[in-house]
Amino acid sequence: MNLLFSINRKFVPLWAQCMATILRHGGADRYDLYVLHSDLTPSDQAEMQKVLRPADSCTLIQVPAELFQGFPVSGRYPLQIYYRLAAPLLLPPGMDRILYLDVDTVILNSLEPLYTSDFGGSAFMACSHTRKLMDVVNRARLGLEERVPYLNSGVLLMNLDQLRQMVRLEDIRDYAEQYRRRLILPDQDILTALFGSHALVLDSRIYNMTDRLFLRCGATPGMKLTLDWVRRNTVVVHYLGKPKPWQKNYIGPLGVFYREELACTQGR
Q1: Helices (H) and strands (E) in the chain, counts
Q2: CB-based contact 84:153 (threshold 8 Å)
């Protein structure tokens, strides 16, 4: 299974915990990791390899800084958030698919059903967390086509053969420049605007469960979920936003899974 991450050095420990949950629950006999970065060192790679099994591999791909020079960034959203948008151009040309994961995720069940899914002509698979009203707002804010859902970029199964024919850094740069003042979550805004019409939307309860989604389902008649349901059915829990389970003041209901998985990692 091909896995993609995009991190800087300070996120290596968080990546290690995310990867530990993949090794426990992801279901693959072998993982080939590709890590897009700008500051990782050979010693970082050696430490990352220690997390993996002998059959697994980890390839670091240093992204030239000039590719995204001038793109909007902030303390919360560093330049690395854009790297996944250019991944089809940076990964080995013979690769046909790869699963991108944010490192603030925990894997609870097998990734195999998602990874082996038929793209059905779509360029990638992703989830959406917005409801109809926000879809209308985002269409106006970002100039989206009708019926294009606002996508979350934390879990992306990429059809690389198709995306290589679509992704152009010039288009990404031009859009970022044109909508610079309207971008709130820059990578997600650009992903949705340029490629959202080519996405197959997945069930967020299974592949991108968040605290907010869990609470929303609990407040919706006929959709009430339990933590046991999440444990048995959800594949990816995503701790988006702030605070995170490893930070102070976090009170989200899904933190139990992070704590359980961390205890397993530390007890091995």
Answers
A1: 12, 9
A2: yes
The segments of the chain whose pLDDT lies below 50 read none
Judged by DSSP in three states, 57 sits in strand
In tens, the pLDDT along 69-104 reads 777 777 767 788 889 999 999 999 999 999 999 999
Q: How high is the pLDDT of residue 268? A: 63
What's the Cα-to-Cα distance from 193 to each of 60, 67, 147, 221, rounded to whole Å? 29, 20, 12, 32
- List of E strands, 171-230: 199-201
Domain 2-209 has CATH 3.40.47.10: no
SS3 239: coil
Which residues, listed in sequence order, are joined to residue 100 by a DSSP beta bridge?
Answer: 4, 156
Residue 27: left (phi > 0), alpha (psi -120 to 50), or beta?
A: left
* pLDDT number for residue 267: 82
Beta-carbon contacts of 130 under 8 Å, excluding residues fewer than 6 positions away, are 138, 149, 150
Q: Classify burial at 199, counting beta carbons within 10 Å of its beta carbon; exposed 0-12, middle 13-18, buried 19 or more.
A: buried
The ranges assigned to domains in the chain are 2-209
Pair of tokens at residue 171: 């288009």
